[in-house]
């Protein structure tokens, strides 16, 4: 459960990065919390409670978390420099390759609503896999 709450806390941090928390972002967080089997009351607590960062242990799960963050950053169709900075930092904290992170940030501009297809995302990270 600790890892799931950490995942949601990181998403909340990103959603708040531009100082404008929107309904679309909250709805996205609700969907992710349901996928993680975290109820709405637990999700709401995360807005005011510190949760220690606990990255997923598997690389695939860390890439999935980064993908969630990219989707969240683009859900309101307004991506600013602060959100891009938070995405970069989060990717590095997740232990992902910095070149792959940059490649994803460039690639997302090529797709409608910044939604990089899962296959493309995996392809990018495979290139930089050790």
Question: If helices are DSSP runs of H or I spanning 4 or more residues, what is the number of helices?
Answer: 7
Would you tell me the structural class of the helices and strands? mainly alpha
Beginning-to-end CA distance, first to last residue: 29 Å
Mean pLDDT: 91
Oligomer: single chain
Relevant terms:
single chain; 130 residues; mainly alpha; 7 helices; 65% helix; globular
Task: Summarize the structure in words.
The protein has 130 residues and is mainly α. The chain contains 7 helices and no strands. The N and C termini lie far apart (29 Å). 30% of the residues are buried.
The gist of it:
The chain has 130 residues and is mainly α.
SSE inventory with pairings:
Blueprint: H1 2-16, H2 23-35, H3 40-45, H4 59-75, H5 81-93, H6 98-107, H7 118-127
């Amino acid at each position: 459960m600790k890892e799931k709450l950490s995942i949601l806390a990181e998403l909340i941090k990103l959603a708040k990065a531009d100082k404008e928390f929107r309904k679309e972002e909250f709805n996205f967080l609700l969907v992710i919390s349901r996928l993680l089997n975290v109820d709405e009351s637990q999700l709401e607590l995360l807005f005011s409670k510190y949760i220690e960062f606990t990255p997923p242990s598997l690389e695939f799960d860390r890439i999935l978390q980064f993908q969630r963050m990219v989707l969240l950053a683009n859900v309101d169709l307004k991506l600013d420099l602060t959100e891009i900075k938070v995405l970069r930092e989060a990717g590095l904290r997740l232990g992902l390759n910095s070149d792959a992170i940059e490649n994803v940030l460039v690639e997302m501009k090529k797709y409608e609503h910044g939604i990089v297809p899962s296959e493309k995302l995996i392809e990018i990270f495979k290139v930089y896999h050790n």
